[in-house]
Design goal:
Elements (H helix, E strand, L loop, with lengths): L2 H24 L4 H9 L6 H17 L1 H11 L3
Helix pairs in contact: 1-2, 2-3, 3-4
C-alpha cells in the first residue's frame, strides 16, 4: 500500500474510531481504556490498527495526551 493510500485509509476510518472512543467514554471508561477498546476493533484497516496499537502502548508508558501528540507528529494527517 502506498503512503498516500495508507493515509486515505486511515483518514476514512478515523470517524468510526472516534465514535468508538466517545462511546466508551460515555459509558464511563477511562480515556486509555476507551482508546484501547476502540483500537481492538477487528474491522479496522491494518494501517490504523497498527498505529492505534502503538498509541495505546505509548499511552501506557507516558499518558494518553503524550501518545496522541506523538502520533500526530508521526502521521500529520
Amino acid at each position: 500500500m502506498t503512503g498516500r493510500r495508507r493515509e486515505s485509509t486511515i483518514v476514512a476510518a478515523l470517524p468510526e474510531v472516534l465514535e468508538r472512543v466517545a462511546s466508551g467514554l460515555r459509558a464511563g471508561a477511562a480515556p486509555l481504556g476507551a482508546l484501547a477498546e476502540a483500537a481492538a476493533g477487528a474491522d479496522l484497516p491494518e494501517p490504523l490498527a497498527a498505529d492505534l496499537a502503538r498509541v495505546v502502548g505509548r499511552a501506557e508508558e507516558g499518558g494518553v495526551a503524550a501518545a496522541l501528540d506523538r502520533w500526530a507528529g508521526d502521521r500529520p494527517l
